[in-house]
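writing this on my phone so excuse typos. first protein, seq and then structure
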Amino acid sequence: MPITKSAKKAVKVNEKRRSRNRHFLAIYKESVKSLEKLMKADKKDPKELLVALSEVYSRIDTLEKKNILEKNTAARRKSSFAKIVKSVSV
């Protein structure tokens, strides 16, 4: 248990940040799952894949903007998703 006033505040701040980070990461994971579901489907519609990919890009950009992901990590993830979608749609 925190004893000092600053330690108590640090606990509150950490809980708030953790909650916020988990919320945005959950939204990101949800969009990734929908993209993966489309990639595993028997009939792959390229337009649907691109819409899902743009949704994932949007989520990654949001995480980067809110300092949940570092910019190089965001770029790496976007690149890997683009590579995967390209290989699936070909």
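second protein below, same order as before
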Amino acid sequence: MSTLNKSESFNKRLSSLHQSLGIPSDYLASCRLPVCHEPEVLVDAELDHYQRLQKLAPEAFAAWTAMKKAAKQASVTIFLISAFRGYQYQHDLILGKLRGGRSITEILKVNAAPGFSEHHTGRAVDIGTNEYDAVGIDFENSLAFQWLTKNAGDFGFTMTYPRDNPSGIDYEPWHWCFSEPEQQL
């Protein structure tokens, strides 16, 4: 399939998923998040906090494994809440919230629309710890968050949605995405 055909197919797929959720047609143009493509290769990572098998891109899984080991050596517990999520999974997640009575505008402040979630890349992880409930703002008060803030960059992870981030997504201290490790000086 040519690049143009892949792009058209991708746009049609996203448009269809967005329409079924009632996402405004101008969302693609107004969204402040980058388009996130699903990777060609994912590996089985580990069971998450809910005992669901998670998948990550191979390089993200290697970095996650090294970071989790280093945290454990520092007596800090971190675990996966969520990793790879495909476009359809993201659609279904949002649909569940719509059915629960939340508005699409409210949902899009905390969940990126299909095609715009870093979880699609297989490089994003939502991280939990035993000290606090999963995916809550209180995570910022945890020893795990303090450790991540100081050390995650060494493993290539950054917190994508800090307070007052330009993307329009609410503050998520538990959401970290792998790019490349920071260079040691």
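The chain has a mean pLDDT of 91. thats all i got for now
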